[in-house]
């Protein structure tokens, strides 16, 4: 009887793993079939007004890159503070708060940014989208920097100090260098995550049918446009949404895999 | 230079605190008109964007009692609510916004997600931690993490066009419904829950497991009697953490829940959740409507903040460095 229960249990566990893998396969296969069948070279050469995706892809990347440009330095420096400088209870508090912020509902962050960066200026703008994405990114970067710095042995810091280097020199030249690969992976994973975000952009940057690099106006976004296109009744719109979803997923998963590959190589 | 860098790093760290306080105050200020207008009554009122005339006698008390089960702690002062109702009927007609439907929709869809995801995530965690060989565990683990990396809007589209038809064929009812939204939500939190559970299980010392095996225990018995008691706190924490994530999920649910302001009678009825209400109605909302959406956002923010806080500090404290 014990052995039978054990068999059932093992079978259940294996089936669970297969269910997980099955969903991944199902989604990816669907994306490949639907995406590839509606993918043409012309999609990359035209903007959404002409039935292409060029402006959306560029727009999404610009938003994510600018957000990363703000989020990475701020998050890293804050992570350095928590791990290297902070004394007493304060860094502990910041660490906990940033832990909580990682899981904060992204739509709420969108609403927050809306009320100070969109409403007072009378309309959606690219800056607001960048701010919303960078707010999503900062706590993720803080957490990775924090945990990666904790892996750097104390002796390295002491050796640096013994050479007479000031603390910030030791941190920037020794500690960060030692944790470089781990932090890089964290940054790539964070980038992949915000690049696929939709909810914080819905009412901040919205989206645009035209090619634009003007951050003071509504800004083209791949994810928001997928949402709009997928809800339109015409089949051509939905095909476009599938093609866009395919491009988005491939982009996000490649960045994600590349990030993982970096740390795997190290070990 | 040293001092400057220290100042900058302190400032960036404080930014987190400022942002959180900022989110809370901004939501509160933007929600203020709605809070003043509806008070705590908002939580138990199922009308959304409805014109109400002076003479209407609606079934507030009945609504209040049904809500009680769901939102017990938040409407402790029920007597006040009924009094508030009387003050409200002063104008000839006015638009009333109530948050009951989105709140119930959020809680129910999250509940369905948990019921579905919990056993499967546990199974996956056991598989990764105990059953699979190192190599298989590595690749399966990576695949499961890739599932977590797929953008939520993709889950929404896939769910709407491929998953929902199958569900509605099997269980009947509408394609967009509480059930499909909850199940897709479950698939989405699956990887996260499995990963955190696996990490908790891995903290069980090998010595304990080996002694149990040496006594002739089967794998099931080791998991049930050694690993699970040892990592129970962490596992519960991971479930609650996943719950916190599921509450705030927007895009996938937006495709699948139907976005209708009506209380679901059965599990296959369409309804709406807080994030979806915000995503769908924010664009055209203004005045009191917009403020009510902020009120919903505030409720969601507090709810998820509290849940994540409990998970982190009550259950996962031990797992921290």
Give a verbal description of the structure.
The complex is a heterodimer of chains A (267) and B (321). With 267 residues, chain A is mainly α. The longest helix of chain A is centred in the N-terminal third of the chain and has 36 residues. The model of chain A has no long low-confidence stretch (mean pLDDT 90). Chain A folds into 2 domains: 37 residues; 224 residues, MetI-like (MetI-like fold), CATH 1.10.3720.10. Chain A is built from 10 helices and no strands. Chain A starts with a helix and ends with a helix. Chain B is mostly helical. Chain B has 2 domains: 76 residues, no CATH class; 219 residues, Orthogonal Bundle (MetI-like fold). Chain B has a two-stranded antiparallel ribbon. In chain B, helix 5 packs antiparallel against helix 6, helix 5 packs parallel to helix 8 and helix 8 crosses helix 10. Chain B is globular and about 80 Å long. The chains are: A mainly alpha (267), B mainly alpha (321). Chains A and B meet through helix 1, helix 2, helix 3, helix 4 and helix 5 of A and helix 1, helix 5, helix 6, helix 7 and helix 8 of B.
Low-pLDDT parts of chain B are 56-90
The CATH architecture name of the largest domain in chain A reads: Orthogonal Bundle
How many H/I helical runs of chain A?
10
**Rough shape of chain B?**
globular
Number of strands of chain A: 0
- Strand percentage of chain B: under 5%
Helix content of chain A: over 70%
Kindly provide the name of the CATH class of the largest domain in chain B. Mainly Alpha
Task: Kindly report how far apart the N and C termini of chain A lie.
Answer: 44 Å
Outline the low-pLDDT stretches of chain A: none
Number of helical segments with 4 or more residues of chain B: 13
Query: Kindly state the mean pLDDT of chain A as a whole number?
Result: 90
Number of domains of chain A: 2
Arrangement of strands in the largest sheet of chain B: 1-2
Total strand segments of chain B: 2
Please, what is the oligomeric state? heterodimer
CATH architecture group name of the largest domain in chain B: Orthogonal Bundle
